[in-house]
Amino acid sequence: MAPSQFWGLMEEARRARTAVSAVFAVCGAAFASWAARVPAAQAKLDLSAGQLSIGLFGLAAGSVVALAAAGPVLIKIGSRRGVLCGATVLCAGLPFTAFAADLPLFVAALVVLGIGNSLLDVSMNAHAARVETAYGRPIFAGFHAFWNIGGLAGSGAAALMETWHVPIQVHFTTAAVVLLVLAAGAVAGFLPGADRGQGEAAFALPGKVLIPLGVIAFCGFVAEGTINDWSAVYLSGVTSATAAVASLGYFAFSITMIAVRTVADRLAGRFGVVTFMRVATAVTVGGFLLVVAVPVPAVAVAGFAVVGLGVSGMVPLAWSAAGRKQPDAPARAIAAVAACGYFGFLAGPVLIGPLSGGIGLRWTFAVVGCLVVTVHFLAPAMRVGDRSARGSAPTADV
């Protein structure tokens, strides 16, 4: 390959990396915009807790349906058009939830939101796998850091909208337009051409080699979902923290997640992905142990930050490995592993309530920590060919 051609491909890869990172941020911001204003949506329709749960079930149902269909859909249309479709449906779902006039329409809107979120999620991860292949070294976790950054931006903007008493109809419509424009503009920078496996048989079963990666994603997402949904409840209920302090648990968790995801790829490449995953497991379990062993507000917040340090790289590296284990159809492989992960993200936190009713929330968190130990034993499944021992082959540092 001529030097000019090589550097042209590297510049194309850099541009695509920036574009995919922007789409990850859009996805995180869109979902956080909704999540941060759930109480406003509930108040607008005067929904009881039970009715809100029905709506949230619609969100979960839409997510699961889209995850099941995402692999075959992407085989047909490719990740570029998948991102455009997913972003359009997700951004349409935001104002749909805001303008829903009754519970049935609210449930339908959340189904749309769930479908859009999952389709966009799998599509952007599939294209991220293409960009990582073009780079020749792991960069997957860095993309997921931008999802967290977008989530913080979206939740921060939602907090301002709440403070300024901006109706959710105005907030969600404005956010949807802005985010869709950003996503559409970013897609222009994606890698050209078709994805590997695009146009082939859509319903080929993913190999059993992906099962361990699915379990790793499941465990990582259960831990993430538990902190997302229950950290504030734990701090206020178990440690008797004030409302202000209780909100710091998720914030500390998010900050450490972002920090580690920006360097996780390089750490996995330097020390080996198996070693990285085992150290990450030990750190995650140690964070849960700290939370459970010392139920004091400051220590628990620190424990949640430690959990973020550990769990941050598990899911993105598992998705990266899935795409590389089935290079002929990475979208289908990522969709299969994502489905396992999102099942943990959606079902895990829901099961926390009944389990805590039996053994208490403190010991339920201990159970989640024990579940993560599974990743230690499955870490060797992360190896992919000759690149597995150290994460990647030597490449130009781009």
UniProtKB/TrEMBL annotation:
InterPro entries for the chain: MFS (IPR011701), MFS_dom (IPR020846), MFS_trans_sf (IPR036259), MFS_Transporter (IPR051788)
TM ranges: 51-75, 82-100, 106-127, 139-160, 172-191, 203-223, 243-264, 271-293, 299-321, 333-353, 359-379
Membrane topology type: Multi-pass membrane protein
Coiled coil regions, renumbered to chain: none
Subcellular location(s) of the protein: Cell membrane
SUPFAM superfamilies given in the database record: MFS general substrate transporter
PROSITE patterns membership: MFS
Domain Major facilitator superfamily (MFS) profile: 181-398
Signal peptide: none
Protein name per its UniProtKB record: MFS transporter
Organism name: Amycolatopsis ultiminotia
